[in-house]
Amino acid sequence: MSATASGQQPTSGTERALSDGRVALYRHPLTVRLTHWVNALCLLVLLLSGLQILNAHPALYWGEASPFDHPFLSFGSGDAPAFPGWITLPGYQDLASGRRWHFFFAWLFVLNGLLYLGYALLSGRVSRVLAPDREQLRHIGRSLIDHLRLRFPHGEEARRYNVLQKLSYLGVVFGVLPLMLLTGLTMSPGMDARLHFLTELFGGRQSARTLHFFTASALVLFFVIHIVAVIAAGPLNETRSMLTGWFVIKPGRRS
Fold it and tell me: CA-CA to 225 of 20 to 30 Å: which in 69, 169, 232, 248?
């Protein structure tokens, strides 16, 4: 559809003025959109298959050994599975299948993450889009209050990510996800034989397993907050921007 037919007046390759006073910005390049959706699929499968694996022994420990009588944290009780079948992959108890699903999508997740990271670094997206500036950091308190009140920016303020978005994305990309990857590698006997320094770094394979669970939990929390924010900010606009790349901003200041 042409810009004229859609009621849009092209002003540049990355910005279009709409007939109703709104502005469409080309915010998400194709590589970002593709890796976003592949990442979402991988994390969903990893979560469901991870709970299947955890169901086989729903307890966490600290250190190298597994003192079964004194777990660091345990889930459920009795012979019933700790997590119901509707939230595991597969939906019935099958540790071997759960591991196959988990390992396949774990490597797909790694390759997809490397593709995104390489693009973000080489294109300057990290410094240009994700890194908060000094002015944003000064007003982080106001941004936090606005988010708690579900108030989102309009007009010029909506042209870029806010400071909380930037810090959360940076924390996930450069903190939570690498930690989840490294702890996952530490739990693998084959990787442990080759990269034993990881076992020492995390204080044992059982410690790595516990940290792996907590990083996965942090990702689930991030996902829930992300979905709530998308719904509150306008799910149609947010979803469309991640499908087409174009994000529409409303004129005016904060409401």
Answer: 248
